[in-house]
Amino acid sequence: MAKLILTLDGAVVREYPIDKTRMTIGRKPENDVQLNDATVSGVHAAILLLQRAYVEDLGSTNGTQLNGSKVQKRMLTHGDVIRIGRHEFEFVDQQTQDFEKTVILSGDTAPAQPVSAGKPAANGRVVFLTGPKAGERMELNRSHTTFGKPGVQVAVIARRGEGFVLTPMGGVGKSGDAPRVNDKPVTGSSRALQPGDIVEIAGTRMRFTVK
Predict the structure, then answer these.
(1) What's the chain look like in SS3?
(2) I want to staple 169 with a disulfide (CB 3.0 to 4.6 A). Which of 36, 48, 80, 153 is the partner?
(3) Beta bridge mates, 193
């Protein structure tokens, strides 16, 4: 579920879950979110929850800002900041937030180098199948890329010679917690990846391919 985090002068005042298709924000008490602010119109703006979330200015006197710019109607993405009068609302898409907390993508500082000087190595990539990034792809152009939770590495996809392997990291003991390749847990040593393999790490599924 998405939510709005209301702040005033940098201090968090309240959180509002976006649990209806239309929420109004304004100075009048009949609004879903009432702001005691003389610069806010009686019914100032609305949050619309259709297939995606939107903010819409309702003809207010002083306007509605999204990330510092006045808007009439604009789709919201995770982390956007809406300013109404002296108040700010941070839009939090909890699905995206949970994904960002669960899957951390990082690589080392050096590009991967092929072992064989006479034959260039194939470039790997993963295509996300689930989660907010579904349909997006990420190039595996470093010698290793870690996937994990804050403070806990779950798995590494690393180049080995002309191919790639998936290696579970410390803290993964039970098969239910382990990364999976084609629905089979990888709890021991590294597992070589083949084009088309379905990898699941921290609940996110992705397809490994090469180009």
Answers:
(1) CEEEEEEECCEEEEEEECCCCEEEEECCCCCCEECCCCCCCCCCEEEEECCCEEEEECCCCCCEEECCEEECEEECCCCCEEEECCEEEEEEEHHHHHHHHHCEEEECCCECCCCCCCCCCCCEEEEECCCCCCCCEEEECECEEEEEECCEEEEEEEEECCEEEEEECCCCCCHHHCCEECCEECCCCCEEECCCCEEEECCEEEEEEEC
(2) 153
(3) 164
At residue 150, the pLDDT reads 52
What tens digit of pLDDT does each residue of 66-96 get?
988 999 999 998 888 999 999 999 998 766 5
In which residue are the tokens 């995606």 written?
Answer: 52
pLDDT in tens, 129-140: 887 778 888 888
Indicate yes or no: pTM above 0.70: no
In the numeric block, the tokens 């939107």 are attached to 54
State the Cα–Cα distance between residues 130 and 122, nearest whole angstrom: 25
Amino acid letter for position 68:
G
Beta bridge partners of 15: 5
